[in-house]
Amino acid sequence: MAKGAIKMTKSVISTNGSIKVKNVNRIYVDANGNLVEALHNINLSIKPGEFISFIGPSGCGKTTLMRLIAGLDKPQSGELFLDNEKIESTNFERGYVFQQANLFPWETIENNIAAGLKARKIYKEHKADVAEYIKLTGLEGFEKSYPHQISGGMAQRASLARALINNPKVLLLDEPLGALDAFTRMDLQDKLIELWERRGTTMVLVTHDVDEAIYLSDRVVVMTPRPGKIETIVDIKLARPRNRNSSDFIEFRKEILGKLHIATAH
Description:
- This protein is an alpha/beta fold.
- Helix content is 34%, strand content 23%.
- The strands form 2 sheets. It has a 6-stranded mixed beta sheet, sandwiched between helices. It has a 4-stranded antiparallel beta sheet with strand order 2-1-4-5, covered by helices on one side.
- Strand 7, helix 5 and strand 8 form a beta-alpha-beta unit.
- The longest helix has 19 residues.
């Protein structure tokens, strides 16, 4: 742990959005009919309003775990809970942002953002929220644009707005910045932190980028190669906003890279 590092709390403290993962195992059958153990005995507690990142080598089960939390998949054994209620299917209380924006190409940006409200038949009461989230995510002036008319970074902003407008307790971020250029990626990292501090939403991120995990997270969960297990959890005690070039940041980078090396060796 970096010496002298301190932790600054965000302005909004949430009381909802706690996640518990208890003794979860996930096995699936691959294309050749072989059994593959994706996750082995995962136990994890995430506090309300916490920002957590999963990091580990490709194929270690990070996305599998996210899909289980989202209710898109089910474990062979073990249980997952949101605020002490068992997760058994998808729900608007758990928003999901994918690596690709996945916007409806035939809809405008404002209609894409409003899609969840319309599906839940609450658009009329929350119509004003669409303009609010367009402003929050810096998309003013592009409300009537279509996805092919905007950049990849703007499309991901729209995806964030579409997920957040449903007021989820948890926002699941499955490498949403991985395909973006470095400048756009850093800009969206700052936007994520801004939205997280404003709303107090529990955020769970999958990433391969150690610096991204340190910059955004309260804790970083380091996972082993398949079968995915939790090797260690690193508590990032750094004040915000964070400086990627500070000595404390660099110490956390060294620590996590060391843990990843150990996890891979195991």
